[in-house]
Amino acid sequence: MQIPGPSGPSSGAVRRVLVVDDSKMQRRILSATLARAGYEVIEAASGAEALEIAARLVPDLILSDWMMPGMDGLQFCRAFRAQMHGRYVYFILLTSKTETTDVAEGLQSGADDFLTKPVNGQELRARIAAGERILRMERELNEKNRLVSSTLGALQSLYDSLDRDLMEARKLQQSLVRERHRSFGNAEVSLLLRPSGHVGGDLVGFFPINARRVGLFSIDVSGHGITSALMTARLAGLLSGTSPEQNVALVLSDFGIYDARPPAEVAAHLNRVLLEEMDTESYFTLLYADVDLISGQVALVQAGHPHPAIQRACGRIEYLGAGGLPVGLLEGAAYQDFTATLRPGDRLLLASDGITEAVNAERVQLEEAGLSRLMARNAGLGGPAFLEALVWDLEAFTGGEFTDDVSAVFFEFHGAKENVG
């Protein structure tokens, strides 16, 4: 028996062949033929000996006699396959059997090929060359699978890291809407912001203009994900309720108090800022309302956003506005103010298209008619409870699947009261 110096599995080309035969003469003949062809040959006189050798010196290919005392070739093949489950070795059975049932039995036992005894040297080299090709393909495939697994592992690690970052980004984006409900005594405002993913492109909010006026806004940035979320963060600063000096909707009068630009001028100013100061292809739709808390007078601008809805105290629902161009789409875009009057008991809803364009299982959109039904159904609810019920009904309509961000500003006018601060 010839034992090579280095141990362990060979790599690269097929070089190491284990010859298993109880006939010493047959082993010598096969070994000589293989050695002349440049192969490293290991000999074993029995299946048991071959298993012990294979455990230490993993061969690339095995030539094994079928008929051997003790453990025959089929038993050895099955035992070897069980022992070497982590590495594939090409297995050729040497046999004088030619019956179809015998060949089938050998294949079922794990053999890859057969050689009929007595072995022809030329045929032996051809069968081993075929085995080499198969082993090369198998090892190339394993290497590619290893690279794919390694890449998938790296991508999963990157995804997990990104997922953690997005979870934190979601918290930060939600913090942009610090106050979800406020009562002004004779009126109250409630906000809804629910992104369809980790982060979204919708933004809602309000800010005081002076003692009797409040600004309301609903924004929907084009696209989804991180870019849109970053844009909402910038816009939250431009319409800040805590830093009036940064709020583009406010101007400082000669008397040292803040007043508001007309809504159309606010949209036009934001359009210039987006096109001139931000190097981005994003744009957004906008509804902005300047509401007088005493008189109920409302001045609005609509820039590509869904129409604002007024639910009158009697239950009638009206949609206002003529559409308008989105902000940041065209240089020099013109915007128009329009007005409405709220009477005691009236409610104003500024909703994103994530609500009106929500679809059910039949791919039918909710649209304004569907929104009117939901508003009428929940007319007895107010404040955050109304918005919560609206989301529940919307989930029932869509089957719980929101493909777009859902947001809304809900303003309720109760009527002027004395001593309103």
Automatic annotation (TrEMBL):
<dbReference type="InterPro" id="IPR011006">
    <property type="entry name" value="CheY-like_superfamily"/>
</dbReference>
<dbReference type="InterPro" id="IPR001789">
    <property type="entry name" value="Sig_transdc_resp-reg_receiver"/>
</dbReference>
<dbReference type="Pfam" id="PF00072">
    <property type="entry name" value="Response_reg"/>
</dbReference>
<dbReference type="Pfam" id="PF07228">
    <property type="entry name" value="SpoIIE"/>
</dbReference>
<feature type="modified residue" description="4-aspartylphosphate">
    <location>
        <position position="65"/>
    </location>
</feature>
<dbReference type="InterPro" id="IPR001932">
    <property type="entry name" value="PPM-type_phosphatase-like_dom"/>
</dbReference>
<dbReference type="GO" id="GO:0016791">
    <property type="term" value="F:phosphatase activity"/>
</dbReference>
<dbReference type="InterPro" id="IPR036457">
    <property type="entry name" value="PPM-type-like_dom_sf"/>
</dbReference>
<protein>
    <submittedName>
        <fullName>SpoIIE family protein phosphatase</fullName>
    </submittedName>
</protein>
<feature type="domain" description="Response regulatory">
    <location>
        <begin position="16"/>
        <end position="132"/>
    </location>
</feature>
<dbReference type="InterPro" id="IPR052016">
    <property type="entry name" value="Bact_Sigma-Reg"/>
</dbReference>
<keyword id="KW-0378">Hydrolase</keyword>
<keyword id="KW-0597">Phosphoprotein</keyword>
<dbReference type="GO" id="GO:0000160">
    <property type="term" value="P:phosphorelay signal transduction system"/>
</dbReference>
